């Protein structure tokens, strides 16, 4: 049965449906991720506030359809276009990656107000701040935590030996789900070695508010290593069937 719905939602994906229409994927705190058909959104005169763009916060109204059909967008009003993000390529890259991860990891129709709040806070910080890469790292780690994918980084995933901070480098295994102590690393072929400081930094990010990192400067080489280990881990997580993420 069709039902009219009004909600605040972030546009996280969009593609053309025809010369004049679009399919827009939204993420709302009450409804999770869902697609809508914006009929005629690209016509000069339309009544639904189109054309719509990604990375905008909207107030939308739509007709909710059964899950096998596209919802029909009936109206949209921009609440926040996140303009500073569109004026800075580093900010845009960080925000685009956030949307990509939400698109990949968030199941359709799974309500998750905490992820929504995390996402809006991260976008606000990227708009106002000057360290989009730090905002992105914080978002990524807390996204993993909220969706139940956070790896074990404070102790060995095999034997629970605490992170060996006396050593400069530590092994991490995505398939094993966390770090490996020196004794266990030899038993696991699938792993990546990285500076131990990456994991102490991740642990700090997971246990503090973003404001703690306002003035942080990552020591030389540490930032590419944080990226390398997260890219490796996200690649592993995203390749799993989507149904495993619910
Ligand atoms: Zn171990």
Concise description?
The protein folds into 2 domains: 3-80, Beta Barrel (OB fold (Dihydrolipoamide Acetyltransferase, E2P)), CATH 2.40.50.140; 84-150 and 190-245, de novo design (two linked rop proteins). The protein contains 6 helices and 8 strands, in the order βββββαααββαβαα.
Describe the structure using short key phrases.
2 domains, five-stranded mixed beta barrel, binds zinc ion, elongated, 246 residues, de novo design (two linked rop proteins)
Care to describe what's here?
By secondary structure, this protein is α+β, with helices and mostly antiparallel strands. It has 2 domains: 3-80, Beta Barrel (OB fold (Dihydrolipoamide Acetyltransferase, E2P)), CATH 2.40.50; 84-150 and 190-245, de novo design (two linked rop proteins). The protein is built from 6 helices and 8 strands, in the order E-E-E-E-E-H-H-H-E-E-H-E-H-H. The chain has helices spanning 89-105, 113-128, 132-146, 182-185, 196-206, 222-238; strands at 3-16, 22-28, 32-38, 57-64, 71-80, 169-173, 178-180, 192-195. The strands form 2 sheets. Strands 1-2-3-5-4 form a 5-stranded mixed β-barrel. It has a 3-stranded antiparallel β-sheet with strand order 7-6-8. Helix 2 (113-128) packs antiparallel against helix 3 (132-146). Mean pLDDT is 92; it is low at 240-246. Zinc ion binds at residues 156, 158-159, 161, 180-181, 183-184.
């Amino acid at each position: 049965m069709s039902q009219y719905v009004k909600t605040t939602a972030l546009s996280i994906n969009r593609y053309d449906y025809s010369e004049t229409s679009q399919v827009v994927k939204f993420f709302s705190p009450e409804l999770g991720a869902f697609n809508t058909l914006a009929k005629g959104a690209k016509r000069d005169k339309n009544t639904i506030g189109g054309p719509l763009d990604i990375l905008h916060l909207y107030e939308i109204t739509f007709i909710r359809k059964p899950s096998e059909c596209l919802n029909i967008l009936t109206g949209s009003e921009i609440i926040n276009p996140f303009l500073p993000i569109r004026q800075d390529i580093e900010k845009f890259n960080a925000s685009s990656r956030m949307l990509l991860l939400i698109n990949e990891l968030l199941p359709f129709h799974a309500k998750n107000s905490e992820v929504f709040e995390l996402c809006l806070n991260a976008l606000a910080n990227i708009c106002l701040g000057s360290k989009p890469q730090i905002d992105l790292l914080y978002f990524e780690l807390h996204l993993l935590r909220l969706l139940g994918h956070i790896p074990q980084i404070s102790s060995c995933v095999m034997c629970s030996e605490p992170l060996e901070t006396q050593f400069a480098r530590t092994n991490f295994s995505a398939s094993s789900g966390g770090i490996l102590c020196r004794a266990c690393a030899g038993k696991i072929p699938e792993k990546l070695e990285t500076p131990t400081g990456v994991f102490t930094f991740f642990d700090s990010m997971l246990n503090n508010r973003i404001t703690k990192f306002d003035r942080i400067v990552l020591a030389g080489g540490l930032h590419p290593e944080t990226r390398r280990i997260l890219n490796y881990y996200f690649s592993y997580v995203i390749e799993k069937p989507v149904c495993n993420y619910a």
